[in-house]
């Protein structure tokens, strides 16, 4: 462990686009059970840098992972997330789950995004007509989170950012779902440090409370925007992602074990649309199911129990007929802002419901 942490420190200042490889631990190997040691369902995918918020995709038959790149900056830890002060993205790839992981080096830096101020948070990616799109949240120069897009001819970058953020975008955690009919949708939003509570009136309210309402009013919703054909704009107004309880009523803000907090992801299974997300301060990954990508979605249950660390952030993909969930915890560092990504299999029951994972 000491050796890998020394390597981590050395790699954090690396700004060159240099490929390095690290061998993946077997996905299901539990950590050695010495007295008092914690056991983990799976091991970190890489240890040469700290990584979080893994958005995974299969491109050209390989698995590409678009994570945040966590670094130590000395910023104070607070509910606004100032301690997550990331400056760049590294893209990772692997031939299959359990094979060695390639770190493709720096793919995009905050200094190369013309409109950006600080904090490159959880990204996602998509592919269409020969171009790869990297979607990223970053605070603009007024300290308001916006979502930007950058393009490349390669899934591993380097990516070139557009001159301005996506018009009408705000908050954090973009996740792009491309349906089988060719339509693409971006899901986004996050509470507290993600600033979603500041957009309740439709425009940014710098004086809004730092947290969402905690009473029995409908919970604040994630947002969804259909993407235009060029994948760089919203094609129409951004909508609420409605999540209902079993009686068809919207989840309440006080229902903190089920309401949306951040880190939305959409996948399709057997013709149904699964919207999954983090409950933030109650530390769960949960999901809701709908009949179309625009919702509404009905809450169904817990995907993952709390990980080590404040919370986790996930993506779900199918690889060669099996489903996997990529997520993060803090096994390598023990610090909430220095995380490491992992993967484990996602299993379902015959009715399509997801089996709860204990990480
Ligand atoms: O990595 C920064 C933020 O932490 C992400 O945007 C959230 O989803 C949480 O994982």
TrEMBL record:
Signal peptide: none
GO MF entries: hydrolase activity
Keywords: Carbohydrate metabolism, Glycosidase, Hydrolase, Polysaccharide degradation, Xylan degradation
Key word Hydrolase present: yes
Listed InterPro entries: Glyco_hydro_43 (IPR006710), Glyco_hydro_beta-prop_sf (IPR023296), Glycosyl_Hydrlase_43_Enz (IPR052176)
Superkingdom of source: Bacteria
Claim: Hydrolase is one of the keywords in the record: yes
One Pfam family linked to the record: Glyco_hydro_43
Entry-linked Gene3D superfamilies: Glycosyl hydrolase domain, family 43
Database matches in PANTHER family: ENDO-1,4-BETA-XYLANASE, PUTATIVE (AFU_ORTHOLOGUE AFUA_2G04480)-RELATED
Sequence similarity: Belongs to the glycosyl hydrolase 43 family.
Protein name: Glycoside hydrolase family 43 protein
Organism: Hymenobacter negativus
């Amino acid at each position: 462990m000491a050796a890998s942490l020394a390597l981590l420190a050395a790699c954090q200042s690396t700004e060159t686009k240099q490929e390095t490889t690290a061998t993946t631990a077997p996905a299901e190997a539990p950590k050695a059970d010495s007295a008092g040691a914690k056991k983990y369902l799976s091991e970190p995918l890489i240890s040469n840098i700290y990584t979080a918020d893994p958005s995974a995709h299969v491109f050209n038959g390989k698995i590409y992972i678009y994570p945040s790149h966590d670094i130590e900056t000395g910023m104070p830890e607070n509910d606004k997330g100032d301690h997550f002060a990331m400056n760049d993205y590294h893209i990772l790839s692997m031939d299959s789950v359990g094979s060695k992981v390639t770190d493709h080096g720096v793919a995009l830096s905050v200094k190369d995004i013309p409109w950006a101020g600080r904090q490159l948070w959880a990204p996602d990616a998509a592919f269409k007509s020969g171009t790869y799109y990297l979607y990223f949240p970053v605070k603009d120069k007024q300290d308001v989170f916006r979502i930007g897009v950058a393009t490349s001819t390669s899934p591993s970058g380097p990516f070139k950012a557009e001159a301005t953020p996506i018009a009408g975008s705000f908050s954090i955690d973009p996740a792009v779902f491309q349906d089988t009919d060719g339509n693409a949708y971006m899901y986004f939003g996050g509470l507290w440090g993600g600033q979603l509570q500041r957009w309740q009136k439709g425009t940014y309210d710098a004086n809004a409370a730092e947290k969402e309402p905690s009473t029995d009013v409908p919970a604040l919703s994630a947002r969804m925007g259909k993407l235009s054909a060029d994948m760089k704009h919203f094609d129409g107004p951004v909508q609420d992602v409605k999540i209902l309880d079993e009686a068809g009523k919207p989840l309440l803000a006080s229902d903190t074990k089920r309401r949306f907090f951040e880190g939305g992801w959409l996948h399709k299974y057997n013709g149904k649309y699964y919207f999954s997300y983090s409950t933030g301060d109650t530390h769960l990954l949960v999901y809701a199911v709908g009949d179309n990508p625009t919702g509404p979605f009905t809450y169904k249950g817990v995907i993952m129990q709390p990980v080590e660390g404040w919370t986790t952030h996930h993506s779900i993909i199918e690889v060669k007929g099996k489903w996997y969930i990529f997520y993060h915890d803090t096994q390598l560092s023990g610090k909430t802002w220095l995380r490491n990504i992992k993967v484990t299999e996602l299993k379902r029951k015959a009715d399509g419901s997801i089996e709860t994972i204990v990480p």
